[in-house]
Amino acid sequence: MQIEFSEIAKKTLAENIEFLKRVWTNREVVIFLEDVKRITNDLENGKYSQFQSSFHKTKSVLIGKKHVRMFFRKESETKIKVLLFFDMRQDSQKILELLQ
Asked: No. of H helices and E strands in the chain?
């Protein structure tokens, strides 16, 4: 399965990493990045259905001490698109704005 990161996913991942670098230790940032890699590998290996559905055929998983939710969607039989990395301590209404 091919994994593609949307522009907003790339941007929000970078923003989350920068925030985490300011408030977490380097080890915790590494663990966060390992979570991203592990989930990406799971998706590449066809484990899409194991994740919880969020809305409109979008699935998600909590990563990084369960503070960040990674949203993704199956675009075709061969491609999954990572849509967004969202810090769950923010207003949840912002998720809908970012996913549009």
From this structure: 3, 5
Q: What's the rounded Cα separation, in Å, for the pair 70 and 95? A: 11
Averaged pLDDT, 91-97: 67
How far apart are alpha carbons 27 and 33 in whole angstroms? Answer: 10
In terms of Cα–Cα distance, which of 82, 91, 58 is closest to 7? 82
Query: What six digits make up the tokens of 67?
Result: 């503070």
How high is the pLDDT of residue 67?
82
**Burial of 71 (C-beta count, 10 Å sphere; 0-12/13-18/19+):** buried
User: Could you report the per-residue pLDDT of 58-72, keeping only the tens digit for each?
Assistant: 888 888 777 888 999
CA–CA gap between residue 33 and residue 13 (Å, rounded): 10
Bridge partners for 52 per DSSP: 60
Q: In the Cβ-directed half-sphere of 96, how many Cα atoms lie within 13 Å?
A: 5
